[in-house]
Write a structure and sequence with these properties.
- By secondary structure, this protein is α/β, with parallel strands linked by helices.
- The protein contains 11 helices and 12 strands.
- It has helices at 57-64, 87-96, 114-125, 132-141, 158-169, 188-205, 216-222, 240-245, 250-257, 298-302, 324-333; strands at 8-23, 26-41, 46-50, 72-77, 80-81, 97-100, 176-180, 208-213, 225-230, 233-239, 308-311, 314-316.
- The protein has an 8-stranded mixed β-sheet, sandwiched between helices. Strands 2-1-4-5 form a 4-stranded antiparallel β-sheet.
- Helix 4 crosses helix 5 (158-169).
- It binds adenosine-5'-diphosphate (ADP) and magnesium ion.
Length: 334
């Protein structure tokens, strides 16, 4: 089987924003929010981007659509690189992709009724029925009661707004759906409904999904591959089953260990991640995770690790990936 060409591919994507007081119209420094992020999503594939708050997940999703201008790297759409990061280039991406915002209500027109909003993509594309009954069926599919279709956005709860946004994103099935925390703030039962809807769409339309979440249970449930981000960099990525079976980066392991455990009597082998995420304005030297790493060795404090391929599409940015750590530590102990 020949691998499918990714719908979207980011290669070494970087987003820096000017920061600090401006002297003679020049900002004093740049803040690197995203550094060298490389991710590909193929048709029918669900890739999850996972990381703590502030790791750059939302910025990545927005940069792919040009809502935040990348300062370096390449974006390829169906194997063809965008000529540049101009508005015109991103128009092609936006024709193929739908973005589900982290805060869906912020993207709604306050004066437009929910039903009109959901029907609008069909109207613009001139594809799909905009009959009331068909829009109601679409709403129901996303778990939204059709009697809400005549309301205005302010009259919806957070959960209803999220479902309305899902219905709009599915109004015309795009080739790629970028969903930023699509289940945040939803009841667990509704969360499952939204995720199953994604799986169903993927199966029926071969749609590619880039799913942004800080919820590992969500990632485990739906994704084929996981990308772990830390301070704007990818620190580990690989097939979902592989990441859960044998995480290689100590950060990934710590995230997995800090997942809520349903059984209160269950005792963890290791406590969750130590300390807080450092500021982007003061990136640590060496490996940027070293201050929080329980396996830190001298080299980690001074030398930044490269992204290392482990085979089978699994890669890790760590000098001493887990499994090796024990051997190295034993050697160090003599
Ligand atoms: N426009 C901006 N100006 C300044 N800082 C920003 C901007 N957008 C994002 N950031 C910073 O970049 C980091 C990553 O943000 P974000 O992409 O929202 O992370 P996540 O979605 O993983 O929580 C955060 O520290 C955030 O404060
Ligand atoms: Mg976010």
């Amino acid at each position: 089987m020949t691998p499918k060409t990714p719908v979207i591919e980011a290669a070494n994507l970087t987003v820096s924003i000017p920061e600090g007081p401006h002297y003679f119209f020049q900002p004093t420094y740049k803040l690197d929010i995203l550094i060298d992020v490389s991710i590909a999503v193929s048709p029918g594939e669900i890739v999850c981007v996972v990381g703590e708050s502030g790791s750059g997940k939302t910025t990545f999703g927005r940069a792919l659509l040009g809502l935040m201008r990348p300062s370096g790297g390449k974006i390829r759409l169906d194997g063809t690189a965008l000529a540049d990061f101009s508005r015109k280039s991103f128009r092609k991406v936006r024709q193929q992709a739908a973005l589900l915002f982290q805060d869906p209500a912020s993207s709604f027109n306050p004066r437009q009724r929910i039903g009109t909003m959901i029907a609008e993509p069909r109207h613009i594309a001139g594809a799909g029925s905009t009959r009331q009954a068909d829009i109601a069926a679409l709403a129901l599919q996303a778990g939204l009661q059709p009697d809400l279709l005549t309301r205005f956005p302010h009259a919806l709860s957070g959960g209803q707004a999220r479902r309305a946004a899902v219905a709009r994103a599915l109004s015309v099935i795009p080739r790629l759906i970028i969903a930023d925390e699509p289940t945040a703030g939803l009841d667990v039962s509704v969360q499952g409904g939204v995720l199953n809807l994604f799986l169903d769409i993927r199966d029926r339309h071969d749609t590619a999904f880039l799913l942004i979440t800080h919820n590992l249970a969500v990632a485990r449930h739906v994704s084929d591959r996981i990308v772990i981000m830390y301070l704007g960099r990818v620190v580990e990525s690989g097939p979902t089953a592989e990441i859960f079976r044998a995480p290689r980066h100590p950060y990934t392991k710590a995230l997995l260990d800090s997942e809520p455990v349903p059984d209160p009597k269950h005792r963890r082998a290791e406590p969750p991640v130590i300390g807080e995420v450092p500021s982007l304005m003061a990136r640590p030297a060496g490996c940027e995770f070293h201050q929080r790493c329980r396996h830190v060795l001298e080299r980690c404090r001074t030398e930044a690790p490269e992204d290392t391929q482990l085979g089978d599409g699994h890669s890790v940015r760590c000098h001493f990936p887990l499994q090796e750590t024990k051997a190295v530590a034993a050697m160090a102990a003599g």
